[in-house]
Specification:
Blueprint lengths: L2 H8 L8 E4 L4 H14 L4 E7 L6 H15 L2 E6 L9 H20 L2 E3 L4 H14 L12 E2 L2 E2 L7 H11 L15 H16 L3 H27 L4 E3 H6 L2 H16 L10 H5 L4 E6 L2 E6 L2 E6 L11
Parallel strand pairs: 1-2, 1-4, 2-3, 4-6
Antiparallel strand pairs: 5-6, 7-10, 8-9, 9-10
Helix pairs in contact: 2-6, 5-7, 5-8, 8-10
C-alpha cells in the first residue's frame, strides 16, 4: 500500500488537524513530516527537532531539518538539550526530553504529537520487551493513539518510508548510533528481526498483527478487571482468592499501577504472597506495596527507604 493512502486510512492526520511532528532528520520522520503536510496541510503542521549535541553530526542534522521545513513550508521549533551527569539511561533521557517538549508545544497549540514509529519499530519493541519484561503487556507493543501521541506510520515498514522519501525526492540523515551494539534495542534490530525474517518472510508482519490482536483482547481484560473491582480501590482477600488466578493477578497489578501511576510488572507475581499474608504489608516493587487489614487488600505507595519486597 502507498504510504500516503495507508496513513490517510488511519484517520490520524485529518485535514486541518494541528499536529507537532517529532523530526530527527531520519527517513521515518522525514516521511512522516511530508505525509503530514500533504494530509493535514502545511498551516496545521509544525516540527520539533531536539539537538542533543551527542554526535559530531548533530549540527548537520539540525541544518537538514531546518532546510526540510523551509522546503515544505512548515514551522520548526529547535531545542538544544545537554545530558546531565545523573540522567541515567541515555535513550530514555533523550525520549523523555523530546516528548516533554513536544507535549508542551502541542498543549499550547491544541495539537497532537506525531512520531515516526513504523511496523519495523513495533516488531523490535515487542521482541525487546518480551526478552526484558515478563507478562502480557510485553506483547502489546505500541498503540497507534495514546493520549496526545499518535503514530501514523505504525502499519508501514522502514522499506516503505524509504521508498516514499526517494519517490518524493526527499533526503534524510543516517544516525550511526542506531547501529551501536551498546544499546539493547539496536541489538534486537541487528540480530533478532533479521533472524525472524530468515525463519519466515512474514515474521515481522505476524509479530505486529499479534500485538494488534492482543491490544484488542487487553481492552476486554481491562473491563473484566474493572468489573471485579466494581469501582473500588480495594478488594476482600477472600474475593481475590476466589477469582481465577490469572484474573486475580491482573487485579493486583491494576491496584498497584493505579497507586504508583506507572507500570508495576512485578506486582502480579506477588499474588501467592498476598493471599498468605494475613494482616500486614508487602512491598510489590515499583513504588507500591500491598496492605491487608481485616481481610481487605488495598495498595499504597511504598514508604521512603522501603524498596525491597518485604513482609512486615
Amino acid at each position: 500500500m502507498d504510504v500516503l493512502d495507508g496513513v490517510r486510512a488511519t484517520g490520524l492526520l485529518p485535514a486541518g488537524g494541528p499536529v507537532v511532528v517529532l523530526l530527527s532528520g531520519g527517513r521515518d520522520s522525514v516521511c512522516l513530516l511530508d505525509v503530514a503536510v500533504r494530509l493535514a496541510g502545511p498551516a496545521a503542521v509544525s516540527a520539533l527537532h531536539v539537538n542533543y549535541g551527542l554526535r559530531e553530526a548533530s549540527a548537520g542534522d539540525e541544518t537538514h531539518c531546518r532546510r526540510l521545513c523551509e522546503q515544505l513550508g512548515v514551522e520548526i521549533d529547535v531545542h538544544a538539550a545537554r545530558r546531565p551527569a545523573d540522567a541515567g539511561n541515555l535513550q530514555a533521557w533523550a525520549r523523555d526530553v523530546r516528548l516533554g517538549l513536544a507535549v508542551q508545544i502541542a498543549l499550547a497549540r491544541g495539537a497532537h504529537v506525531a512520531t515516526g514509529h513504523t511496523s519495523t519499530d513495533q516488531a523490535e519493541t515487542v521482541l525487546y520487551r518480551l526478552a526484558a519484561s515478563p507478562g502480557r503487556r510485553a506483547l502489546l507493543g505500541m498503540a497507534d493513539r495514546d493520549g496526545l501521541l499518535v503514530r501514523p506510520l505504525l502499519r508501514m515498514t522502514r522499506i516503505q518510508t524509504a521508498a516514499h522519501c526517494t519517490a518524493r525526492g526527499l533526503t534524510w540523515r543516517e544516525d550511526a548510533s542506531n547501529e551501536d551494539p551498546a544499546f539493547a534495542r539496536n541489538r534486537a534490530r541487528a540480530g533478532l528481526v533479521p533472524a525472524l525474517r530468515e525463519l519466515h518472510p512474514s515474521a515481522e508482519a505476524n509479530v505486529v498483527r499479534t500485538a494488534e490482536l492482543l491490544r484488542e483482547e487487553a481492552a476486554v481484560l481491562d473491563e473484566v478487571v474493572a468489573t471485579a473491582l466494581a469501582g473500588r480501590d480495594q478488594i476482600e482477600v477472600a474475593h481475590l482468592a476466589a477469582l481465577p488466578p490469572a484474573l486475580a493477578r491482573l487485579v493486583v497489578r491494576r491496584l498497584a499501577e493505579d497507586t504508583a501511576g506507572r507500570l508495576c510488572a512485578r506486582a502480579a507475581g506477588r499474588l501467592a504472597d498476598i493471599l498468605s499474608l494475613g494482616d500486614g504489608a508487602l512491598d510489590l516493587g515499583d513504588g507500591a506495596r500491598a496492605v491487608v487489614s481485616d481481610g481487605v487488600l488495598h495498595v499504597e505507595p511504598t514508604p521512603p527507604g522501603r524498596s525491597a519486597p518485604t513482609a512486615v
